[in-house]
Amino acid sequence: MDVALLTVGDELLAGDTENTNATWLANRLAAAGATVTRILTVPDEESVIADAVARYHEAFDAVIVTGGIGGTPDDVTKAGVARAFDCPLVVPDEVRARLKTKAEQFAADNPEMVSRYEMDLDLDAWASVPEAGQPLLTDESFAAGCVIDGVYVFPGIPDELKTMYETVADEFDGDRTAETIHTPAPEGALVGAVTDARERFNVVVGSYPRTDEQPGRVKVTGDDPETVADATAWLRDHIETE
Question: Going by DSSP bridges, is the β-strand pair 129-130/134-136 parallel, antiparallel, or unpaired?
Fold first, then answer.
């Protein structure tokens, strides 16, 4: 299963916010056996989002879009996705009703905040989804996400993203498997073994240098678990491990 990740937000491109969502999603998808082959960050511009979604929808088995689904003026992701599928945004009655109840409960639980600040809450914007999409709702998130023909639209707030992803996580199962070897050897000393392993076992082998957080790594990836295991065992016999 080939997956593309599209993260949306001017704050990501400006470096104001670290793009932890892309890293988290890539890890979870890899663990599920899916293959992430594109990660793209785009600004809060409807036309740019629409173009990227349309291109990736044609090229990949699934596309995950995160960020920009709330009800503020710069939240244009759902409009961009709707534009990519040439359909309008709609406000499902059941989604709006659920968000209305949630907003009323929030007001009841936070009277001081509500009295101090004038809350301009556009329920229609928060509840809207592309007409052809299936809404995704969680207790963690106020805004409605959606899925439309293999394109999954999630919130940008990390906790909300993680909760919504779990509601559809089973849809990202794949055949990809990987094993990692830790090594104290520098990358330059691994070239011969890595090249031989690729040719002998027809697997993907990557080497990654030591960092302050973790030792050097050699990662073996393939579609057949037995072949990956054989290649990993061969590499353990041919490189220094720790």
Answer: unpaired
